Amino acid sequence: MTQQMRAAIVGTGFMGSVHARAVTAANGRVRLVAGSSPARARDLAASVPGARPADFDDVLASDVDVVHVCTPNHLHHDMARRALEAGKHVVCEKPLGLTVKEAADLADLADRTGLVATVPFVYRFYASVRLARSLIAADARGPWLLHGSYLQDWLAAPDADNWRVDTARGGASRAFGDIGIHWCDLMEFVTGRRITALQATLGTAHPVRAGRPAATEDGGVITFRTDGGALGSLVISQASAGRKNRLWFSFDGPDASYVFDQEHPERLWIGGTDADRTLTRDPARPGGRPRALPAGHPQGYHECFADFVADTYAAVRGDIPDGLPTFRAGLRAARLTEAVLASATDGSTWTEIPR
């Protein structure tokens, strides 16, 4: 197929607007927008050229090629399942469900139908991340210590509230399920190592949030082992003042260490025993893409999202893009989240991760 992809956006919050922009940037067309109310659907549709408001049943009955599910977490499983059953390709925000069972159900259904089903682990699409991945793959000994953090401050105030804080809509894990899983996905993608066991300690900055006892974590510390014998640690927080969206990693080996900071994504720091160097993004290096911005034009979150959507649409047309995160990656995220919660509850032993 070479025709322009026809898309529907389901969900009209921040992520719905991000998906709508990415569809257009990836040379697709948003045909329909469905929201929690007709008014919200109309508002987002009015900002997207050629889009019109609809309800979810309209979306399923339409001729759109791809449905983008950008609703609160508790709606993901049912909506993604119905879209797949209607023969639509699906892009679904993580988590795929509130349980591993729900995530596995969707991953299995996507496999059975043969439809393209992807999850926006978009940090994979930074050129500096792809460069680190290629260098590590060529590193004979590779990293043995994998550590980093993902820190935000948008829930730093005790009265800050959001639907993600509600376990019925957001799920049992907030900070790890929302941002920690992005770091873990990135670590496994870049290094090729998979977490086999972990220990987690979770906590809250505010025992009471927005007048209610806190039911989900503000942050935590996770230590882990991998299948390649590497050790690792991760610190996560959504209540660290001044940290807006600092996803940072350092993957350290005896021959080289690799450092990436999402708030300064144009640079990859490479440490050596004799000298260090910093590589600035250049499309001519590994990780460059055909549609890449020229060197000196900073690549940002929106560009990564557009590249992710473009690769999803390429897969719909029959290509096999490298590193495209499918529903299997979403299932992996669900299993890691379940293990973090189990370990934090137990508080003493390592929790094994099913492959």
Write the layout of secondary structure elements.
Blueprint: E1 6-10, H1 14-25, E2 29-34, H2 38-46, E3 52-54, H3 56-61, E4 66-69, H4 76-85, E5 89-92, H5 100-113, E6 117-118, H6 127-138, E7 145-151, H7 167-170, H8 175-191, E8 195-203, E9 208-209, E10 212-213, E11 219-226, E12 231-237, E13 246-252, E14 257-261, E15 267-271, E16 277-280, H9 301-316, H10 327-346, E17 351-352
Parallel strand pairs: 1-2, 1-4, 2-3, 4-5, 5-6, 7-12
Antiparallel strand pairs: 7-13, 8-11, 8-17, 9-10, 11-12, 13-14, 14-15, 15-16
Helix pairs in contact: 1-9, 4-5, 5-10, 6-8, 8-10
Instruction: Provide the CATH topology of the largest domain.
Output: Dihydrodipicolinate Reductase, domain 2
Per CATH, the superfamily of the largest domain is Dihydrodipicolinate Reductase, domain 2
Describe the biggest sheet? 9 strands, mixed
Shape: globular
Averaging pLDDT over every residue, what do you get? 95
In percent terms, what proportion of residues is strand?
15-25%
Give, in order, the helices and strands. Answer: EHEHEHEHEHEHEHHEEEEEEEEEHHE
Low-confidence stretches: none
CATH class of the largest domain: Alpha Beta
Q: Structural class of the secondary elements? A: alpha/beta
